[in-house]
Amino acid sequence: MTDTLARVGSGRFLTFTLNDEAYAVDIFHVLEILEYRRLTVVPMMPAFIRGVINLRGRAVPVIDLAIRFDRGSTTVRRRTTIIIVHLDDIGVDDDDGVAAGGQDIGILVDSVNKVVELAETDIEPPPSFGSGIRADYIGGMARRDGDFLILLDVSRVLSISEMVSLGDAARAGGHTEEVTELAEGH
């Protein structure tokens, strides 16, 4: 089993659609699913950070996956949903190098479908080309109902350090080549 598949593994996955494509994230990371609500726009953020929501007194950033995957932006409709995920290992305390407890992040998607159970035998390695998104964002491909589900590696898709780097590069004068290189993982 590859390192990528070892990160995803078998288990339960929340499925959702984005631009008519089927995706899934490990249910382990999902805290809750919210109907779309008005976002507070934060100035000088990268375009894929659509804003923040107030979640029980905490400001939670909301990422538009369509923009993150360079597929336009999500059009808010009746079924538009915000999936709140928690990532444990993305924050580091500068004083002692200990993890700072992680971060809650909202993911804006067209709609949430259902939770599915996937066995290791259902999951294939990510394709090296042709998926339309960066290969390191994909934890695997699962055969489901005669089609494929793209299993996202949320720790890579929602890497705070990478998103901050992209935002810094964009604010540093719109150096398109630098932003493109960061977005493509070069």
From TrEMBL:
PANTHER family attached to this UniProt entry: CHEMOTAXIS SENSOR HISTIDINE KINASE-RELATED, CHEMOTAXIS SIGNAL TRANSDUCTION SYSTEM ADAPTOR PROTEIN CHEW
Domain (CheW-like) ranges: 10-163
Stretches assigned to coiled coil: none
Protein name, UniProt field: Chemotaxis protein CheW
InterPro entries cross-referenced by the UniProt entry: CheW (IPR039315), CheW-like_dom_sf (IPR036061), CheW-lke_dom (IPR002545)
Family annotation (Pfam families): CheW
